[in-house]
Design a protein that fits this description.
Blueprint: H1 2-14, E1 18-22, E2 29-35, H2 46-55, H3 60-70, E3 74-79, H4 84-99, E4 107-111, E5 133-138, E6 141-147, H5 154-162
Parallel strand pairs: 3-4
Antiparallel strand pairs: 1-2, 2-4, 3-5, 5-6
């Protein structure tokens, strides 16, 4: 019954680009594939997502400086819903993007399993070793990435990449 329920939830909520599977290590639901941020409002993920998002204080001066420099960039985030670093950093990063008015059309979220694979070959050419990995693009060329945790803060690392 649990498997059937997980299947129907994944089809309804996430469409064909992603699916909800059982993590073989913890038996908890794990999201894989390409999603929108709405996927993290599912009951399986919203507790940790909302806690990190709501409690993170964005550096407003860095965000103000970042705003005009990131408007034309694209960002890909590779994360694991099973990973504590992803559970901490991704909601915070999305709050930074919300704070500066970053367009979700320029954001791609790829959820991976513990082997860093999604449903298809979403991460094949991205050289992902650790999650989360935030990849920033300008004119379809990678200009930098934040891997696992920021060196300074998310805002400052992002600012250093786009300057």
């Amino acid at each position: 019954m649990k498997i059937i329920l997980l299947f129907f939830i994944s089809v309804i909520l996430f469409g064909q680009e992603s699916k909800l599977i059982e993590d073989p290590k913890t038996n908890n639901p794990m999201l894989i594939g390409i999603t929108s941020r709405d996927a993290y409002h599912d009951l399986n993920f919203k507790i940790w997502f909302n806690e990190e998002y709501d409690n993170y204080n964005v550096d407003s001066s860095a965000a103000k400086e970042l705003m005009p420099k990131i408007v034309d960039k694209k960002i890909t985030i590779v994360l694991g819903t099973w990973c504590s670093d992803s559970r901490r950093e991704v909601p915070r990063f999305l709050k930074v993007l919300d704070n500066i008015g970053f367009c979700d059309d320029n954001l791609k979220l790829i959820n991976v399993d513990r082997t860093k694979n999604g449903i298809a070959n979403e991460t094949e050419d991205l050289e992902i070793e650790l999650v989360p990995t935030f990849i920033i693009y300008e004119n379809d060329e990678e200009i930098g990435r934040i891997v696992e945790t920021p060196e300074e803060t998310l805002e400052m690392d992002l600012l250093n990449i786009v300057e």
